[in-house]
Write a structure and sequence with these properties.
The structure holds two protein chains of two kinds. By secondary structure, chain A is mainly α. Chain A contains 15 helices and two strands. Chain A has a two-stranded antiparallel ribbon with strand order 1-2. In chain A, helix 2 runs antiparallel to helix 4. The longest helix of chain A has 35 residues. Chain A is globular and about 70 Å long. About 3% of the residues of chain A have low confidence. Chain B is an alpha/beta fold. Chain B has one domain: P-loop containing nucleotide triphosphate hydrolases (Rossmann fold, 3-Layer(aba) Sandwich), CATH 3.40.50.300. Chain B has a six-stranded mixed beta sheet with strand order 6-7-8-3-9-10, sandwiched between helices. Chain B has a four-stranded antiparallel beta sheet with strand order 2-1-4-5, with helices on one face. In chain B, a hairpin with a 2-residue loop joins strand 9 and strand 10. Chain B starts with 5 loop residues before the first strand and ends in a 6-residue tail after the last strand. The model of chain B has no long low-confidence stretch (mean pLDDT 86). At the A-B interface, helix 2, helix 10 and helix 11 of A face helix 2, strand 6, helix 3 and helix 4 of B.
Chain lengths: 381, 262
Amino acid sequence: MSEEEKKKEPWIKAGFHRMKEKMAVPVEDDDTSEIALKKRRFVVIVIFGIIMAIVAFIISICISSGGVISVTEAIGALFSSIMKGGQNLNTVELYIYQARLPRAIAAIAVGAGLSIAGCMYQAIIRNPLVDPYITGVSSGAGCMAIAVVALGITIPFIGSSSSLYAIPIAAIIGGIVAFAITMTIAEGSGGSPTNYILAGVIVGFAFSSVQTIFLSLAQKNLTNAMWWLFGSFANITWENAWIVFVPAMGISFIAMLWAREFNLFMMGEEQAKQLGLNVVRFKRTMMVVASVLTAVCVAFCGIIGFVGLVIPHACRMALGGDHRLIMPASIVLGAMLMLFADLIARTAMSPLELPVGAITAMIGTPIFAYMLMKKGRDYNG
Amino acid sequence: MDEPVLKISRLCKNFDGFDALKNIDLELGKGLMIGLIGPNGCGKSTIMKCISKIHDMTSGSIEVDGKDIVKLKPAEVAKLVANVPAESGPTFGMTVMDMVMLGRYPFVDRLWWETKEDEAAVRKALRTFGLDALRRNQVSMLSSGERQRALIAKAYVQEPKLMLVDEPTSHLDMKYKLDVMEYLQSMARSDMTVLVAEHDISLMARYCDLCVIMKKGQIVTIRDPKEVVTEQLIRDVYEVDARVGLDVDGEIYVLPKRYVKI
């Protein structure tokens, strides 16, 4: 055998080996209803999700930077504080009612909201690398939020709440303006998924550069600005927790009504159109819905990364390609990850609080890497 | 004579100043398998996309089963016309069952879940196309031939009057090519009109009842494959020399000669 032939030999073997791994596995021809099977899985996800969310919620209110209180004490204090309507509370009740409950509520909403937004974008744009910040929402929101911090802007007429609402309002405006610009550019260039990503990336860069300028101006308030940029639930109180929770959860649940249409989108826009979906209208509406959802999530808690990218993928890997299962699972898993991330953020190095965005990635990366290695071979996007 | 299933009159399609289709007139009857033949870029796919309303036509009219498609809602068109694409991109973890079930989308008027009837239709299609055992596998795991059959099954569960199939055999080996054509022909025999765009002329001549020859956005001729597939026609349409003959079974074969510029 010549030298050249020897070189070719192992390469051919490697090719053959890979082919064997990719073979499909046949199943029995039985009359089990696949729809009934899916409905069962859906019910399991919902029940398991509710149980796990309650468990995560209880763990989250039991543990604090001050120490651990028993589950019975925490639940007792939780109910008694709610019964008292937040008035005349003792120390434990006060702590749970004022400090932990609003944070937990916001964490659930933001985790669920970002996961659903990521799931929607990935389906519409048909790109696995897409996250909720792909249309420039986070950069626009970040830019405006930092501008408020840097320039010390306050909102007239609302008195003491001014500092509480100035950043969120600016962030929502910035996020929606950035998205509007992205959408105008993308639709002007034909509205293809790739053009949406490109438009989002350049709008993101533009706003980020302005944000950097504001950051350098914000020398005195740099810590404030950094907190927002890395994400934190530290500023969540009863006053603003509802403003995050109601729209974020509401939009997330409503978006699930279109799960079948998201399934159709997986076949590509032309096929979706051919199967009777008004593709242009659906895409535009869902882009707006997902962007508003993202803007609501980042407004009060800042830019929390990772969740929106990875949670939908983890659910797809575990459950397959049907959005009727992926979307509820994303809500549950996103909320849980965020609750645990917030728990670690406030307790790990207490009394110092860590940015929650860093924690989500720290918890999520090894789990996701493990899933990718286990299931990645069969997983295509 | 029955009403034609497809009636196209004076159809024009213009893309930014380029006339992709020029004054197309075409009438197709029930239960026929029709081959659409022509070089790349001659408008085969465009005509199909206009019929299934993926593209809006510039002028002219298209009637399917006597109904003007311009006046129909997308879901109503989807019940009359099914379109099998030339290729499908990534399918994001979708199973074969999930994909074929998408074909029932125009029929499901309630929220979220399909009915038992929808599922029965899908299972029947999966069995017909030999995919039932693979129904829980991801589409990405299938071979090209199986994937093509799954795409046809998806179109089949739409229960269309007219099936448009774009280059169904482009990535397939000989066995799967014949396989796919047999399936398409049996659908045509069960009263569905099947319009197939394809480059393998020998294969088309064997299976199709009629051949529509296109060139530069226009229909050149519509006739029986045995009359239409000639060396002269190949030279006119594809601008290459080819040997056209009959094999021992009396079937047409086309062998292109090595490229010589004419």
